Amino acid sequence: FELKKRVDSKAMILLVEQEATILNYVHVNELPIFDYIKGIHKPTTVIYPNAKNIAPNLLAEDGTVAIRICKDKFCQSLISAFGKPIVSTSANISSYPTPLCFKDISLDIIERVDYVVKHRQDDTELQQPSSIVKWEQAGTLTVIRP
Question: Which pLDDT belongs to residue 11?
Fold first, then answer.
């Protein structure tokens, strides 16, 4: 979905279909990050330094970009059909609890977007928030949200 009102670019995430796509958008020479990605099983957003080929308004102030590989079949199909990554944002408001299912998402967010996909809106199974990690310039990993 696309926000009608501009949001802070630090909250923007590129959703990609597969690992190889990451190389189109970041300068990464360190193989350990790809070993890490292959080993994770829950949704994880990785913040990378040295972004490339990305609109400036999607970059954080420090030039980093957040990327998540989508494993959900619906999202993969959407990204594949679109032919490029989809930009997403968090579905929560700072200082409020992270929604664990669709019904927990604030109406303030839902009413500000142009379109909400009709997928899993009735799903009441609670989902854990995604992990967020930052791949540092020096090749180290910092866990922001486990």
Answer: 66
